[in-house]
Amino acid sequence: MHYFEFREGELFAEDVKVRDLVKKYDTPLYIYSSKTFKRHYEAFDSAFDGIDHLTCYSVKANSNLCILKMLSEMGSGMDIVSGGELFRTLKAGVDPSKIVYSGVGKREHEIREALLSDILMFNVESKQELEKINQVAVEMEATARISLRINPDVDPQTHPYISTGLKKNKFGLDIEQAMESYKLAQKLPNIDPVGIDCHIGSQLTSIEPFIEALNRIKSFHAELMDMGIEIKYLDLGGGLGITYNEESPPHPSAFGKAVKENLQGMKLKLILEPGRVIAGNAGILITRVLYTKKSPSKNFIIVDAAMNDLVRPSLYGSFHRIDCVTQKDAPLQKADVVGPICETGDFLAQDREIREVNQDELLAVFSAGAYGFTMSSQYNSRPRGAEVLVDGSNVTLARRREVYFDLVDLEEQCF
Ligand code: LLP
């Protein structure tokens, strides 16, 4: 059963008619389903039942406070990549001892803030970063728990922009450099090397690359143990894919089973950083048809959501299923669904088969719960839309629609 489904020809979000939400909150509108978020979190987390583990939801996928609070109340930890994400997680009441901090460019004040909060650990991506964290920790008379992010040089077979575990990517340290840095970590007074980390990419649709990476880490882990470095945590990152169109990614339970089988004998706490697999299909974006037009070679459906609201199609050529919110019999056509932004790359779909639509009709863009709102902008001075969270028949405004004043507020303060 899906929580975004048609009932008698009308799209519902759980028990609420999408059209009623639009009457109240207008478009563009992000709608999230609590029950889907919860189901996805549980399916993922329970896949690792039987071994010591911590699921750290990757905040960048969808960082709305309501979502963070809901997941945190279910026991989730968080994977953060900035001081801003730390701020959000703390605001949402997340236990800092369940926060891991990844990313290649942590600034000094961000490191200080994370140390002050006493987060679980930093996932460190370079020797210089390691030295910087030590320096800040010395100044604060604190100890920083760290893991080093290994770049295992494994091809995740996904879009090049979201591959991260290849030699040519900016992420992590190759095995040799990582060994040097662990030796350094052992000597640095205010660093406690407690973990090994790796994240090879996003939207992976097969298990093999994960297992390949895990196997490289396993032999590396044995070497670290021989050196007397006691590793307590193994962070395997995120990356499990979802179905946008016709992909058939492994179910989290199959992923969990394979990881557990390959971990045998390792006495470590496993950390996972899923983002998309929890949030992606838990959100939709609703947009209104403004105009339709036919050029000699194309049909265009011009809608009020644009690349500033959902950039994935423009940035990665990603496919998002689009359906009319109200079903009816009408001839099918091939059309580009485009936004009002002055860029040829501003589209939500190209050459898509969709029924003919009228002005003011509503369209639903599916699988928009991850990397949707979090990647939005105000480009073309377009105030961002609202976000609502539905739970059964309850609706919470999770973020109000921006108004024109929000576009200039920070600039007016400078006059
Ligand atoms: N951990 C680290 C260190 C990451 O860099 C990421 C994602 C994750 C976990 C979560 O990965 P997930 O489970 O969501 O695949 N904007 C792109 C995706 C970029 C992913 C960046 N890192 C998109 O819209 O497809």
Q: Using the 3D structure, state the CATH architecture of the largest domain.
A: Alpha-Beta Barrel
Bound molecules: ligand LLP
- CATH-level-4 superfamily name of the largest domain: Alanine racemase
Total of helices? 12
Number of domains: 2
CATH topology of the largest domain: TIM Barrel
Unreliable residue stretches:
none
CATH class of the largest domain: Alpha Beta
- What is the share of helical residues? 25-40%
Distance between the termini: 54 Å
Radius of gyration computed on alpha carbons: 23 Å
Proportion in β-strands? 25-35%
What features would you describe in this structure?
There is one protein chain. This protein has 415 residues and is an alpha/beta fold. The protein has helices spanning 18-25, 34-46, 65-73, 83-91, 108-117, 127-140, 175-187, 208-226, 252-263, 276-279, 312-316, 404-412, and strands at 4-7, 10-13, 16-17, 29-33, 53-58, 77-80, 99-101, 121-124, 144-149, 191-197, 233-235, 269-272, 283-294, 299-303, 322-324, 332-338, 347-355, 362-365, 386-391, 394-399. It is globular, with a radius of gyration of 23 Å. It starts with a strand and ends with a helix. The structure holds ligand LLP. Ligand LLP is lined by residues 58, 61, 79, 102, 162, 199, 202-203, 237-240, 273-277, 312, 316, 370-371.
Keywords:
415 residues; alpha/beta; Lyase, Ornithine Decarboxylase, Chain A, domain 1; TIM Barrel; 2 domains; nine-stranded mixed beta sheet; eight-stranded parallel beta barrel; 12 helices; 30% helix; binds ligand LLP
